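Please describe our next protein:
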Amino acid sequence: MQTLNLDLAERSYPIVVGAGALARADLIAAALAQPRAVIVSNETVAPLHLAKLKAPLTAAGIDTLEVILPDGEEYKDWPTLNRIFDALLANRCERSTTLIALGGGVIGDITGFAAACYQRGVPFIQAPTTLLSQVDSSVGGKTAINHPLGKNMIGAFHQPQLVLADTDTLATLPLREFRSGLAEVIKYGLIRDPAFLAWLEANTDALLAREPQALAEAIVRSCRNKAEVVAADERESGERALLNLGHTFGHAIETGCGYGVWLHGEAIAVGMLMAAELSQRLGWIDAAAVERIEALFVRCGLPVYGPALGVERYLELMAHDKKVQDGKLRLVLLRSAGEAVLSSAAPAADIAAAIAARCRAE
């Protein structure tokens, strides 16, 4: 088991990665303001992993309440969020009651947003059970729900007290979701860590076989990269925006197709290739770099072409992106396979051509 720290002064917290992390009631108890916690999970994850988390807490004298939500990106919305508030209010939960998010990115985001809002802010703990949530969404304090016009457009920055990434949970993860998580792992190599990108290329087979040592290395290196970025720019005023490589394009796919049709990592993989295509058109990277990125996604079983929504529809959806500033679309692009930049200088014709290059025929 390895522990990293996200350094945010008085709001710093540990990120614990390893087999059996969910059973570490001692770490959870140390993060609680009172011996009471509300575990928020979903109908898929709870039967698999709730007992691993709850039993040690009960043995440690910690009272727990469970809120079990429906599973799926389409439930990351106001009505589902209200189910959490209903349970908190009905059980007279206090400002010192900690919420624990047990699940993937949807559960982590919606639980964190509930914690940010309930009584103007209560503590919460992330217990991510998917690869994507372990390497990305559980770290950094971004919480949100979706809106029909845009993904993650309603939310808050609210840092957890602790992140417990139990690698044992990945054994039950469906292959499609596992591959989806690999997209976010690859992202860290592309935006700021070329040595990690080379390591991923050399260890793709081990990762796909879910070899414990390779998985732990990938998760720790991903979390370390994200922790460094968030510590330097918590509120995304600069460097943190680079973590969104491919997300402006990818969120358009998720929103345009209907939440849950494309998994997040699948959409982001295509989005990163659209960003790479645009970077090539700007003369920043060459065709060989685009081919290298595509080859890694193909090896990981990720899509490399997006749905035929039409270029105009992509651009319409992208206009709702959070990085739009003064009416201008800012995109995360690549100076190299290992260095990302934020730019609003891309000509509209090049953006459209990059989208078209990575869309299926209409």
Notes: DSSP finds 14 helices and eleven strands in the chain. Residues 189 and 262 are 23 Å apart (CA to CA).
